Amino acid sequence: MMDMFSHVAPRYDLMNDVASMGQDRWWRHHTLDALAPQEGEIILDLAAGTGASSLPIARAGATVVATDLTEAMVKIGKRRYPQQSFVVGDALKLPYADASFDAATMSFGLRNVVNPGIVLAELCRVVRPGGTLVICEFSRPPSAVTRFMYRLWLKVAIPLVSKLASSHAPAYSYLSESILNWPDQRRLATMLELAGWTKIQWRNLTGGIVALHRAVRP
Ligand SMILES: C[S@@+](CC[C@H](N)C(=O)[O-])C[C@H]1O[C@@H](n2cnc3c(N)ncnc32)[C@H](O)[C@@H]1O
User: Fold this and answer.
1) Distance from the CA of 74 to the center of ligand 1, in angstroms?
2) Tell me, what's the pLDDT at 46?
């Protein structure tokens, strides 16, 4: 898995924009809105990759600790955003003390870890009581028509675009498969509850292609 992200790292940000047809910027805007960072807060952006998900939060005035397992992604992030702090670390065993963060977020990362339940529990451990978690992840459109179009996009458009724009096309067949196998909105909410999170809410973006889950550490 780490190897796959090392291969996609050089053209990861370009592929995001192309494959999502610019929607990724919209999704990040809503993630920021749900997180509502306050100036001076310390926020963990887990599976931050090259830092594209960290930047809007840092711009809002919070201190963001971008953490990712893949050194190649972090290296590009550090080069691109020298002012941003990056840490190489595993979501399954976070290198942080209990209650270290005011909030945490994870964009398009949870689907890629081997045990998402453990990661959600780790996030609950490192966020302070009363702190929030925002998960931005692909999900299941409620409308059958949108689902049909979405599957077409995953099965036809993504493989085509990845051949043209990606540095590692096979990673994008993995992307399609992992999205189709990922739990829907309700099941992810149950996973959050089982990991110890409370006040769980979600909202759909782009017709449910992406869902934003928000939860509070009790
Ligand atoms: C699709 S990228 C998302 C990057 C970024 N959050 C964004 O929105 O563009 C997924 C990231 O998850 C990271 N990742 C996968 N397994 C991980 C783990 N166990 N711990 C930390 N990061 C992990 C990968 O290295 C990769 O950078």
Assistant:
1) 10
2) 98
Residue 64 lies in a domain: yes
Q: What is the pLDDT of residues 58-91, one digit of tens each?
A: 999 999 999 999 999 999 999 999 999 999 999 9
Residue 2 confidence (pLDDT) above 70: no
Cβ atoms of residues 92 and 118 within 8 Å: yes
**pLDDT bracket for residue 17 (50, 70, 90):** confident
Chain mean pLDDT for the chain = 92
The ligand 1 site (C-beta within 6 Å) comprises 1, 5, 16, 47-49, 52-53, 68-70, 73, 90-92, 107-109, 112-113
170 falls within a domain:
no
Q: Cβ(174)–Cβ(2) under 8 Å?
A: no
What pLDDT score was predicted for residue 15?
Answer: 76
Roughly what angle, to the nearest 10 degrees, separates helices 23-35 and 12-19?
A: 100
Residue with tokens 């689902």: 147
Compute, in angstroms, the gap from residue 47 CA to the centroid of ligand 1. Answer: 3
- List the strands of the sheet with 198-205, edge to edge: 85-88, 63-68, 42-46, 101-107, 127-138, 210-216, 198-205
| 56: containing domain | 2-9+21-140+183-216
101 and 85 in contact (C-beta within 8 Å)?
no
pLDDT in tens, 109-147: 999 999 999 999 999 999 999 999 999 999 999 999 999
Q: How many domains does the chain have?
A: 1
